[in-house]
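agent: user wants the structure for Caspase-7 from Alligator mississippiensis. delegating to structure tool.
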Amino acid sequence: MDVRARDAGAEKRHAAISEGNSEETGCSLWQKSLDARPDRSERLHIFGKKKNGTEQQSKTSPSSQYRLIAPSFQYNMDYKKVGKCIIINNKNFEDKTGMGTRNGTDKDAGELQKSFRNLGFDVSVYNDRTCDEMERLLRQVAEENHSDAACFACIFLSHGEEGLIYGIDGPMAIKQLTTLFRGDKCKSLIGKPKLFFIQACRGSEFDEGIQTDSGPANDALETDANPRYKIPVEADFLFAYSTVPGYFSWRNPGRGSWFVQSLCYILNEHGKQLEIMQILTRVNHMVATSFESQSDNPRFSEKKQIPCLVSMLTKELYF
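agent: tool returned. relaying tokens verbatim.
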């Protein structure tokens, strides 16, 4: 290829690069971009005039003339507040629902409150709320100004079915509550992570497991079930369910639910070091390997559980 043709190609490529100096400390944006794009690093250089049949690289440092703007792949947590964490803890249900008392849920709520406060969240716990009260509460929170907050978290502790969460007076669609925080409804949380943790059953199936692993004794177990640029409005949500669709979610009346026990343990140990998906993957592993139901009733004995993550996050999240 003719050297002049290559020079012209290089000049065209560099014409699209904006000028300026890096504002980052210790590492220029040019360097970061090269690290992020190793497949192009060999092509991003400046040629001088031809001398003695060879191309001479310019003595002027590229970083002093050009800046490549590398996108950030981490959520910005540099806000005045980490954000709000709303815990809805439904324990006692109206007779018409046919739902039993969720013994052990207060243990879950207390541990969650401590764990999320340790991460810097402003935590509020609301006990025994009807469907209308849950919607009214979350609508009010969604209408607040979250401009000085980095993210938002909400935790549901209740009975449930697939796609449904129970107020103390009956079921309602989970989506009816979570959509209140969509980008087109809650403007001050646009582009910020919105985390929902749901401790509730999603069906009536049991996970038999494919291998019998020794797990800790769990006493009597209960379940939570009933026999400037545009971004998508659904972006930046994360849903951490205690179980997969169609299955029971186990809760110990004395120690709380498997999922919440594991979540709080991992958050307390690694919440400020690991990325959120690493945290929740470890929660999955702990629930899957450390727990197994034990009951005198064979139908409820030796059952397993695996949490389920649904992520629409667009960046990495570190607390």
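agent: one observation worth passing along. Residues 71-205+231-312 form a domain with the Rossmann fold fold (CATH 3.40.50.1460).
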